[in-house]
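Session log. Operator J.P. requested a structure for one protein chain; no other inputs attached. Running the standard single-chain path with token output.
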Amino acid sequence: MKRAAPGPARLRRALVRARFRPAGPDGPPVLTVRPGPGSGPAAAAAARALAEAGHGHLGGHLELRAYGPAPRPQDAADAARRAVHRALAA
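Structure written below.
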């Protein structure tokens, strides 16, 4: 019995979850990110989101978790941006 030739490979995207905890007003304006895949673009996106919201003087801690294959830099940045917006809205 012959098997059919495999079709085009399906590209799976990583699921990226981000959590941002802002520092208090007395805390230093430092953004810390736990090292991991996509953390560089995510940190830049989080800092931009803080500055655009008028809170560039605040810092905080950004935690990224990726499930599946390594995340694309854009996916990590989008997740970080959403996490900052959620944290500022709360």
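Operator note: The helical segments are 39-52, 73-89.
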